[in-house]
Amino acid sequence: MTEHTLRWWIFHAETNGLKPALLKIGGRVYIDRAEFNKWLEGQRMAPKPLKPAA
């Protein structure tokens, strides 16, 4: 994950569901690790099924 990606997620937290994991105090943003990891797991795409070897 890049800094740019994390900033994008934080900027769009209202619409992507990340808001419960964020705490904003002054100009700083704190991330609740447990909530962030829960949110991140929810964003995981289902793995593609493996094709059988021919």
From TrEMBL:
Keywords recorded for this protein, A-Z: DNA-binding
Protein name per the record: DNA-binding protein
Highest taxon listed in the record's lineage: Bacteria
GO MF terms, alphabetically ordered: DNA binding
Keyword flag DNA-binding: yes
